[in-house]
Design brief:
The complex is a heterodimer of chains A (111) and B (242).
Chain A (H helix, E strand, L loop, with lengths): L3 H19 L3 H22 L19 H32 L4 H8 L1
Helix pairs in contact in A: 1-2, 2-3
Chain B lengths: L1 H20 L16 H4 L7 H13 L4 H9 L1 H21 L15 H23 L8 H18 L7 H26 L21 H24 L4
Helix pairs in contact in B: 3-4, 4-5, 5-9, 6-7, 6-9, 7-9, 8-9
The chains are: A mainly alpha (111), B mainly alpha (242).
């Protein structure tokens, strides 16, 4: 049986994929990308969990959880934020130039 | 129709990955991981990479926070690339949102409670952000959370005062200086010890503020850099007309 932590983060990824494919609004697609990003980060973190482990800071005793995925996620979060900022500013630019954020109408404008 | 197809695809992906992840142990001891460090470091112990970090990290880097030690010391190149990505994003947002005369969108004036409250809170938030990135090697946090907290203080001012404007030239100067500090510390390591980003300063006593060699220096630089970059992004996005 797959642990609930994996199932939850995989569900977030699946919801993100569904939003990106099914929704037609640019802002909603960006929200879907963000949800997918969160799911991937959660998945990475939960792979590094050790039962009964504490945070890997050596002021506290005891078995520690794996610090490597935490470092990876620290990087991934910043990259996700950068991508989100760029995507949002591109969306604002599209809205200023065409007056719409719906993908169907944008395809009409292109023709 | 499209929604049904998308839902089917998402559910398929979910099921495939759930079946794959059922084989990955959850919460097991780290000794079940394969050993990668042995041929590299010539150690006689039979340790996996995270176990090596947890066992020898304090001795090898002087930092008590192992995540910080990995992010800045063991895998410093990752962080350099990450800072570059954030810098590129800030530059991209700045160039996409560029407007000739920076006139703010007409926002309703906020009331006196919000204005005074944000004025009072601003200093405290900046102080807390500075605390987070200066103590990155001792407590949870570090350069990126600290920088984000500092940028949130500026965001508060932007939201409370419709006329507030951060000085763009000074933001650029602090951002560039912080980035330059990071690279110069790395090059000093190359000159003094033969490795780029080598930890060449004395470690000091762990759990003290002045310890862990170059990690606090680099994290302070990253904190200033991230703070000014995110403030620049906020400024560029708030400066849109109409």
């Amino acid at each position: 049986m797959t642990p609930y932590y994996y199932l939850g983060s995989l569900a977030l990824i699946a919801i993100g994929i569904y939003i990106v494919i099914a929704k037609r609004n640019l802002i909603k697609i960006i929200i879907g990308l963000d949800i997918m990003d969160t799911g991937v980060n959660l998945l990475l973190i939960s792979v590094g969990y050790v039962k009964g482990g504490t945070a890997p800071i050596e002021n506290v005793p005891g078995p520690y959880v794996d610090p490597v995925p935490q470092a990876l996620v620290l990087t991934a979060i910043v990259i996700g934020v950068s991508v989100m900022a760029l995507a949002l500013s591109i969306a604002i630019g599209i809205y200023k130039n065409t007056g719409t954020m719906e993908l169907d109408e944008l395809l009409e404008v292109k023709k | 129709m499209k929604r049904i197809l998308a839902a089917v695809l998402a559910i398929l992906i979910f099921i495939v990955f759930a079946l794959a992840f059922a084989k990955i142990p959850f919460g097991e001891k780290m000794s079940t991981y394969p050993n990668y460090t042995e041929p590299l470091l010539n150690s006689t112990s039979n340790m996996s990479l995270p176990q090596h970090y947890l066992t020898y990290g304090k001795k090898e880097t002087g930092a008590t926070n192992m995540v910080t030690a990995i992010v800045v010391d063991y895998r410093g190149f990752d962080t350099l690339g990450e800072v570059t990505v954030l810098f590129l994003a800030a530059t991209g947002v700045g160039s996409l949102m560029y407007v000739e005369d920076k006139q703010r969108r007409r926002v309703r004036k906020s009331n006196a409670v919000v204005e005074t409250g944000s004025k009072l809170l601003f200093g405290f938030i900046i102080l807390f952000g500075g605390y987070i990135f200066i103590h990155g090697h001792l407590t949870p946090g570090g350069g990126f959370p600290g920088g984000a907290v500092i940028a949130s203080a500026f965001l508060l001012l932007y939201l409370a005062y419709p006329k507030f404007h951060a000085n763009h030239k000074r933001l650029n100067v602090s951002e560039s200086l912080a980035g330059l500090t990071y690279v110069i510390v790395g090059l000093l390591g190359l000159v003094l010890a033969g490795y780029f980003l080598y930890n060449f300063l004395p470690f000091g006593i762990p759990t003290y503020l002045f310890s862990a060699g170059v990690i606090p220096v680099i994290y302070t630089a990253i904190g200033v850099k991230v703070g000014s970059e995110l403030t620049g992004i906020v400024d560029a996005m708030m400066g849109v007309r109409e």
